[in-house]
Amino acid sequence: MTAQxxxxxxxxxxxxxxxxxxxxxxxxxxxxxVHLIRxxxxxxxxxxxxxxxxxxxxxxxxxAGCHPGDCHYASGNLFARRRFALVKRFLEYxxxxxxxxxxxxxxxxxxxxxxxxxREMTADLERLGPNRKLREDP
Amino acid sequence: MPRIGAFICHCGLNITATVDVERVxxxxxxxPGVVHAETYKYFCSQPGQEKIAEAIRSSRLDGVVVAxxxxxxxEATFREAAALAGLNPYLVQIANLRxxxxxxxxxxxxxxxxxxxxxxxxxxxxxxxxxxxxxxxSVYPRALVxxxxxxxxxxxxxxxxxxxxxxVVEREPNLGGRMAQxxxxxxxxxxxxxxxxxxxxxxARHPRIELLTWSEVRExxxxxxxxxxxxxxxxxFVDWDRCIGCMLCxxxxxxxxxxxxxxxxxxxxxxxxxxxQAVPNRPVIRREYCRRFQGRKCQVxxxxxxxxxxxxxxxxxxxxxxxGAIVVATGFDVMPAAQFGEYGYGEYPDxxxxxxxxxxxxxxxxxxxxxxRPSDGKIPREVVFIQCAGSRDPDRGKPYCSKICxxxxxxxxxxxxxxxxxxxxxxxxxxxxxxxxxxxxxxxxTVDQAGAMYLRGRVARVYPEDGRLLVEGVDTLSGTTVEVAxxxxxxATAVLPxxxxxxxxxxxxxxxxxxxxxSEAHPKLRPVETMTRGIFLAGAAQAPRDVAETVxxxxxxxxKALGLLTRGELxxxxxxxxxxxxxxxGCLVCRHVCPYQAIEPRDVAARKVASVNPGLCQGCGxxxxxxxxxxxxxxxxxxxxxxxEVEAICL
Amino acid sequence: xxxxxAALRDxxxxxxxxxxxxxxxxxxxxxxxxxxxxxxxxxxxGAGALVINPFCGAxxxxxxxxxxxxxxxxxxxxxxxxxxxxxxxxxGRVARERLHIVAVACRGAVDxxxxxxxLGRIPERAEVDxxxxxxxxxxxxxxxxxxxxxxxxxxxxxxxxxxLADSWLDEPLPAGVRDFKAVSHMEQQPPEARYAFWARQxxxxxxxxxCRNVCPACSCRSCSLDxxxxxxxxxxxxxxFGFQFTRAYHVAGRCVACGECQRACPMSIxxxxxxxxxxxxxxxxxxIADPHRPSAVEPLACYRPxxxxxxxxxxx
Lengths: 138, 651, 316
Prior knowledge:
The structure holds 3 protein chains of 3 kinds.
Chain A: E1 7-12, H1 16-25, E2 34-39, H2 47-55, E3 60-65, H3 76-93, E4 101-105, H4 111-128
Chain B: E1 4-9, H1 21-29, E2 34-40, H2 46-58, E3 63-68, H3 71-84, E4 92-96, H4 98-102, H5 108-127, E5 135-138, E6 142-146, H6 150-161, E7 165-169, E8 184-185, E9 190-191, H7 192-205, E10 209-212, E11 215-223, E12 226-233, H8 248-252, E13 256-258, E14 267-269, E15 271-272, E16 284-285, H9 300-304, E17 317-323, E18 325-328, E19 332-334, E20 351-353, H10 354-361, E21 382-389, H11 405-419, E22 424-429, H12 439-448, E23 453-456, E24 459-465, E25 468-475, E26 480-486, E27 488-493, E28 495-497, H13 501-508, E29 535-537, H14 547-565, E30 569-572, E31 577-579, H15 589-593, E32 599-604, E33 607-612, H16 622-626, E34 632-634, H17 639-650
Parallel strand pairs in B: 1-2, 1-3, 3-4, 6-7, 6-18, 7-10, 18-29, 20-27, 21-22, 21-27, 22-23
Antiparallel strand pairs in B: 5-30, 8-9, 11-12, 12-17, 13-14, 15-16, 19-28, 24-25, 25-26, 31-34, 32-33
Helix pairs in contact in B: 1-5, 2-3, 5-17, 6-7, 6-14, 10-11, 11-12
Chain C: H1 2-17, E1 23-28, E2 37-41, E3 50-51, H2 63-67, E4 73-77, H3 79-90, E5 99-103, H4 112-119, E6 125-128, E7 132-137, E8 140-145, H5 146-149, H6 152-155, E9 167-168, H7 181-187, H8 191-203, H9 210-213, H10 237-250, H11 260-264, H12 272-286
Parallel strand pairs in C: 1-4, 4-5, 5-9
Antiparallel strand pairs in C: 1-2, 1-3, 6-7, 7-8
């Protein structure tokens, strides 16, 4: 088989990381492309973390947090939404394909959704092939 | 060079079935700084923990990675085990090989490669961990209870009985809340005031309970153990210290006033108490109904008062109080009339809600407990009760069950039949939900003994005809349209959070759900706690519930509050933000994003820097993410740690 | 022109002579008449060295940080300098009451290199108006279009006059509206072309940090770009992307669009094209009309509950 894409995910511990755990306890199979990094809140995610992942070879990056209105810390995901709405457009401006970076809201109850997002994103990344942008000459 | 140990758990077959743990251990061993790696069947077991402890001692480890189940399962377990072996517990990280690897992947090779990467990421992270000590916070040994209904009173009583002082703040002039408005309680049919009045008196008398009624919490600052609360007392226009509670003022007052307590069924006076057993037994002037405040000459109350307690000049007053814990027990409202056009509620006087029926049925109510319909005072011969008026109705935005309506409607039907032996009660319902001790039996009694006719279906409309109300509905069991001519229609309207609950949530910085009920920290395991440490929930403010559940929850909230108050000091998680003052430029952009007002400017060597109050900080990291210089850090999730994780994963 | 210069010298002398102000920041003539240099005047007698002419190109705002260490500062301030000062004030780096802002309306500064190329020799004087630039050397006067020889940052300028002022050398000119034409043009290129463009640009970066050092929005006491654990010093293309992204992101919502970074870049990397992308998206996504003009709370330190999720539909 061909090598799997490498997908780095930043997941807030209260919602999305717990949602991923729920996918696990529910035994929902999804591709092993994703590697989650546990953060307290999507509002903790500094865009430099995202760019670093691309610099070092990630084929895609996911930032996942609680649904707006459900943030454990009330507002962290709302700051994240603003920040990554800009960052996403900026990465595309630099030439990155839109599918390579996603911001998603996944609650602790949405194990199924977590698995779906990973499946979808992995399929997109497989279709695009390995990412060379932001790290190698065109 | 760090000395890190990696412990790869089989979790029986849970991990090994998909992941080659020996290969993961071998890969871990190859990481610079990893001096020990082993696998074991169950590291969470006693012998497993012993193995970790042994390795910490013999290999002089200064960092531990346990690759096992989700950190939400056993992070605490392994941190404690490490601490027992002499390693700072914050030098332990968990790689999630079960929930996020072996259970969700089936291809052994890719799962093993991913598992190794997850371990490498945690090794990279733990290398950058610092030993941390829990933050010690002092606890001010006094509780604040917001709300003086049955929930608030129970919580206050339990805390006071355990030896701590309590401040109760109630928005209304008197204690009692919703329960004081009720006639009887289901399923035992105890008279509500007979059980509530003694409790109210006990609370009022208690040497460790202080009451502040006709008052509201306006501002809350501080944190667990050290809250500072600003309370506003509305002007009563009566000096309560002078007042002797004779209520001559109320008796003589010429201005009728609709008082909330009677829920539209009866009138009170512009000055007075809501009900005769009110505690404290002190009157207030409702200025919107008082003739003097409307610019007329009347001063009857002031003239008749034997002690000169009436004070038309009284103004709102404020006080600051310090408390260590807060119980929020602000109760519920019911859905307002305007929402029910099809039932003619608000249009036809004989369509009332259940709370109004309670007042009609109450012996201390406006009709002296004789059930008379509002329009003409006639005793209704046929009464239709409509359940789920607004509840379980996504169209009206309330998909939830209000939980108490099935039972109180059965109670109403039962009591009605007792008072009107030749009367007939009809109940339109969707389902009967009678879970609870003696509840189902009570509903059966209502059917069997009180002859209530239960019709499963929704009511389409209610309209007047010949002085009666025609109720058109569908009986879904027989599939037929039913039409009942009724003298009185009673709606079991949906339970809503109290008006102002959202504002209070903002003041307290606690979360509410989509319907405005306060959110508990965990629906199963932390049902009376909020996400803000030191603030607890009791009663229907959190979700619709009946008296028995409310009291039980209030005692649970009291127990949680006592858990804080009985300790003079408490330990807080040290995974909070901290400022590198040498690097901080003092731009304080961090203050804007902090949801807890935990960041204040501080002067250091003639310049301003940000300073984090670790008692207030909850460790969300919004400040760390927005700080451009890297001066704001977050223990356990520092920028350098996350970047190191990224690098390890991408390697 | 000379009226303004005389007035400037008078005000500077007055401020420094009054004893309250320790420094006045302006320009003095350079060895090359087309390259005046930023200048700190320390006492009233030195005010005569101050010049003001269309070759005054450098941004002055950042210099107040150094000057304020000696006491309150007077500063010659064009629109771009004014926004820079606003940024420094909003960032808590400068106290407004310690500044005396001498405002001047600016019609654009001449790029000395381009002017020299046009004229074939170093211009001695220049005149700039709304239509054209006249370059003068000896007897020669040459009128050329503005976009042929102004600094690129001046071509897109919509803030000829500062919003903050304590004294005025002339009448303020009205502010305009940014059009982000260059960003829109870049957005319309195919992704592969955009990537090739940026990779080519970033490859050239020599990591001199001039872009940061002149930026009024980059005034942190300690910069994360200097911390090797946060930003590697390596100049692989990957690290160049990391560096450029981080620099641009750190001024997102904070950039005052003064263009000083691009002017200072010795490799002529079009840094404004990065900064302006963020500004444009902030305007379009969050409804902030002029995001380059500092506000009480910067756009990324606040939110609206109904901020658009513009990426929905983008990806698929």
